[in-house]
Write a structure and sequence with these properties.
Helix content: 25-40%
Largest sheet: 9 strands, mixed
Radius of gyration: 20 Å
Number of strands: 17
Structural class: alpha/beta
Order of helices and strands: EHEHEHEHEHEHEHEEEEEEEEEHHE
Shape: globular
CATH class of the largest domain: Alpha Beta
Oligomer: single chain
Strand content: 15-25%
Number of helices: 9
């Protein structure tokens, strides 16, 4: 096929607004339809962003002009809906996490391979200026030989502001599966595949209470650890410490640091696409002493990975935010959770992935590249 790649969106929830705001402005894709179980919500979202059609999932999957389908359903439906998309002969861009378990992830990858289709996955924040600038600096030897990394995400929990937070505390949720993909994908992008992990976890309360919206005051069960602290070994000999928590009264958000033999690189929040970096050397005492490094590259935001996937399909080359990459991150998350629930058992990571080279500084998802 030629011309912009046709895109359909399944799931008209909160996250769809960010994708649609960006993708409707990208020249290399054309958003054709929004579908949802709630067809009225799909219609409202389509009208909001000028998408020409809305309706049911079956109607979207029957369209010949849609090549990529964004799967923006809840995590528990990512695999089942993904398999429907592949069965309809369409490529997938999935919201994170890739799946809830390894079996589901493997099933998606196998189905895509059999069909000769692509399955790619968020987060595409790793394609943004912040992470890509860090990758280029590390590749250039700015911190010497990388040795260790630190990531911290600690908050009290999303139930205070999210009107329907139950799924964030169900299987496939918690701070590890909700926020882990951003931090772990960044680490893999910078340090390569993970070889083994160990972790500890806890669950502060068995129930939580919704704090806002029409269900405010309702209690719901907590099914997963709400704090996971992990140690990760990478195949290249580096290591990292990572904390993911929904039970800290003192927030630490967006902390990613990589230390090498000649300095420490401090990244911006991996849940965003931009933000300046700092390079600390021995003797630096405050942030004012550190070397500033403005982020250089795309700040297109969510949807950049969909555009990159579309370009990869047209060019016949591998996509960057691939299913293999997402599966490796899933494998690491499952291992961290299993270790946390078995008193810190050391778990080897069976999967691996080849990490693509850094993007060029002038890579721009908004520009037209597909004739």
């Amino acid at each position: 096929m030629s011309g912009p790649v046709g895109v359909g969106v399944i799931g008209a929830g909160v996250i769809s607004t960010q994708y649609l705001a960006n993708l409707t402005q990208a020249a290399d894709v054309s958003v054709k339809m929004v579908a949802d179980l709630d067809v009225d919500r799909a219609a409202a979202r389509a009208a909001e962003f000028g998408v020409p059609a809305s309706g049911t999932v079956a109607e979207l999957l029957a369209r010949d002009d849609i090549e990529i389908v964004l799967n923006l359903t809840i995590p528990a439906a990512h695999v089942s809906v993904g398999l429907e998309i592949l069965a309809a002969g369409k490529h997938i861009w999935s919201e994170k996490p890739f799946a809830l378990d390894r079996d589901g992830g493997r099933e998606l990858l196998a189905a895509a391979e059999r069909a000769g289709l692509r399955v790619a996955c968020a987060p595409d924040t790793v394609l943004g200026a912040g992470v890509q600038t860090a990758r280029r600096l590390i590749d250039a030897g700015a911190i010497g030989e990388p040795l260790t990394a630190l990531t911290l995400f600690q908050v009290s929990g999303p139930e205070s502001w999210h009107p329907s937070p139950e799924f964030l505390y169900a299987r496939g949720g918690g701070p590890l599966f909700d926020m882990g993909p951003y931090y772990l994908s960044t680490l893999v992008q910078l340090l390569g595949p993970v070889s083994r992990v160990t972790a500890r976890g806890s669950r502060a309360r068995l129930t939580r209470t919704i704090g806002s919206g029409p269900k405010a005051g309702q209690e719901f069960p907590v099914e997963v650890p709400t704090h996971v602290a992990g140690l990760l070994d990478f195949a290249n000999g580096t290591s990292a410490e990572s904390v993911f928590s929904f039970q800290s009264s003192k927030p630490y958000v967006g902390v990613v640091e990589v230390t090498g033999t000649e300095g420490t690189l401090v990244l911006p929040d991996p849940n965003n696409f931009d933000g300046d970096l700092q390079l600390w050397r021995d003797g630096h005492q405050t942030a004012a002493d550190a070397e500033p490094h403005p982020a250089v590259g795309s700040t297109f935001s969510r949807g950049a990975g969909v555009v990159e996937l579309a370009r990869a399909i047209r060019a016949g080359r591998p996509e960057r935010a691939s299913g293999a990459f997402a599966f490796h991150v899933l494998d690491v998350m499952v291992a961290l959770q299993d270790s946390a629930e078995t008193d810190g058992r050391l778990i080897d990571i069976a999967s691996t992935v080849e990490v693509p080279a850094a993007l060029p500084e002038d890579w721009d998802p908004a520009e037209r590249t597909i004739a």
